[in-house]
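Let us begin with a simple case.
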Amino acid sequence: MHKILVVDDDNDMCLLLTRFLTRNGYVVVSANSGQAAIEWMKKNKPDLVLCDFRLDDMTGVELLRKIKEIHPRSAVIIITGYSDVKDAVEVMKLGAYDYVTKPLFPDEILLTIKKALATEPKESIAAKPSSGVPDIADHKSKNSYGNNYITGDSPEFATIVKQIDLVAPTNFSVIIYGESGSGKEEIAQQIHHKSKRAGKPFVAIDCGALSKELAGSELFGHEKGAFTGALNQKTGSLEIANEGTVFLDEIGNLSYDIQVSLLRVVQERKIRRIGGNKDIDIDIRFIIASNEKLWDAARAGKFREDLYHRFNEFSIEVPSLRERKQDIMLFARHFLKLTNAELGKDVKGFSKEVEDVLKSYIWYGNLRELKNVIKRATLLTDGDLVDVKSLPFEINNFYKLQFDAHQSPNIVKTDNQPPNTNGNTQMPFENKLKTANLDAEYEVILDALKQSNFNKSKAAKLLNVDRKTLYNKMRQFKEFNMD
């Protein structure tokens, strides 16, 4: 579970946030002063810090600087009872993920926290890897772009690097196409870091996570009293990103009304907060991402064609991981290195069998799926090398799961059970019944996995069971020599 540090000199606010976040599945620690927070962080590492802007012993800016010195990868959200654009811009430049005003609304703060924890932090790869793992730092000259970006060896990514170099110095809007988890946001960050706006805010917004009700407020901000519950003025993400870059991920999920408002922003470079009557000039660069072709979405009436043409000044297509298999082990070793550092382990590398499995798998979730698999496998590994027992069921048995569901999986057949003259396996009747039940369950679960592209959460929903039950069934198959 993610660990959150709440820093506020108001005991009631600390207690309120602690109870709320604990109920939502987080481990929460609170501190009533900046110094107390610093002392705690010297011995512990939070995934996220919720910090009041005005503390008794220091400002939120001072504490933010300390947090980034001690734990640069920890996300920070600044909370304040005062809304000031200059303060918001300052803390964003110093590395805060977001800046929110009191009073806090449960749905809004929870959404902000989830987005902050889901955002990939910057990670330096310059440190020397453990013995047995190819030296990624030495590989940096041809495999990294900027300070933190691993591109891979494939010619497809060499093309992308050239495109980044070409478009970054311009002020063109860029559309990045690619499957979920393929690294679109990382490419957007590299365009920003190589542009004239480097050093200015880079604000990433997951349009798929914005509800219709919150989207307008999140993007454009709102004035006090603009709607029920708007007790304070809120600065929108576009305003915070002024002079910098805005990355709109999965833009096709925005509602028609928000697309209309966004079109005006792109055309006139002006925004108006919800409930406001004053235009605010902004200077921002737009980079957007989509997992579907926006031109096709526009022709189907799901996306405004005029907005598409405004954004379509330059486009980059990110290949899926299965289209660049030669990059798989490079990324796997990189993720292993990061996970070793995170878990305090020293796993040296992967067995030959694991490498073969990783290279042959389809990787529906691309780099995101690969990273999660490596993290899990590293956690489960006790020796020097990751072995196949540490890999998830659907990856370790991928090709077995591709067989026609109408074929018998022979779940319980072993070398000690020779077939009889009728071609049937010799076993007691009670075992035959158990085998028949497992065969039937296997068929149903296999169909559900195929329909959900082997996403276990979706498969569990299709089967009307929870994930734990599905995992237990999968383990049961393993016990009967599925491996």
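The second case is a distinct protein. As before, the sequence precedes its structure tokens.
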Amino acid sequence: MGKKLISEADGKAALADLETQMPTAVRYLLQQISVAYPGGTVELRVPPFGAVQCLEGLNHRRGTPPNVVELSPDVFLKLCMGQLQVAEASKLRGCNFSGEKALSISEVFPLTNY
């Protein structure tokens, strides 16, 4: 049984009220990324709210993935909204990019329609 999906209405409502609904907003955007960019090349983590594997290419199933991007919720939201570039985020404290394909996450950002 898969995880319960966040509806578009609930996701957009969470995005409109980040102060009180940041966890739902982050999970909704991660869900959108996993649908729009399926694959297992990069694991995108936004602790403590969630993680998804995305981008076609490599297919990772067990253990620590070879390409991991870990972002704070604030940085993740700024990337999604086009307020920050991946190259800038990769230099910020608390943001980790590991693996030779980690920077390919730039294909994902910014998200459209949000």
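Residues 18-36 form the longest helix (19 residues). Helices lie at 8-16, 18-36, 73-80, 86-89.
Keep these points in mind for the review questions at the end of the chapter.
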